[in-house]
Amino acid sequence: MDQTFWHERWQQNQIGFHVAAFNEHLQQHWPALQISKGETVFVPLCGKSRDMLWLMAQGYQVKGVELSPVAVQAFFAENGLSARECRKRHFTVHQLDGLSLCCGDFFQLGANDLGDIAAVWDRASLVALPPLMRAEYAVRMRQLLKPGTRILLVAFDYPQHEMQGPPFCVPSAEVRALYGGWCEVELLSAKEVLDDEPHFRERGLSRMQEQVYNLTVR
Length: 218
Description:
This protein has 218 residues and is an alpha/beta fold. The protein contains eight helices and nine strands.
């Protein structure tokens, strides 16, 4: 799975992963992270997620990174926002009060590109990546985040052979393998969601569990 895959998804509007409503797990579990107002929240592989607006409305600074210029442009256009643009290293950066959205490759991010991050909201980043890229993603996250940073992570557990990702199956054992060596891992909730997500049943799934984790970088 290379960058062309995601560019084509956005260009062809094949974005079933995008949800217009604010994420219910974000709203329910965010208070458990105890992140002070004014801190910066990182949203990797953010697409045009409106969750960034929700975080801004709670009083946080938001920093996102997204590969597709189509997604970035759609985020601002659909929400009636106008941003300043500049070029920094590998990224075109779109900025407005409370938000900095970097258009470019997540794997080229350096700590200086992010600055001081207090928390990460990962709804559709880890699960968007195949196994080898998930390992690289976790390594890069470890390089970017300082001790004490919280990660609110959403993952799926289902029989991988029944459906080709994304979203990919990332069971609890893999979450702990990827993050357990450098984060405290707490499972906040686990819920069977196939009845609520019939399109996944149509893709061949017999079961699907959505899991939410609170990870704290050591």
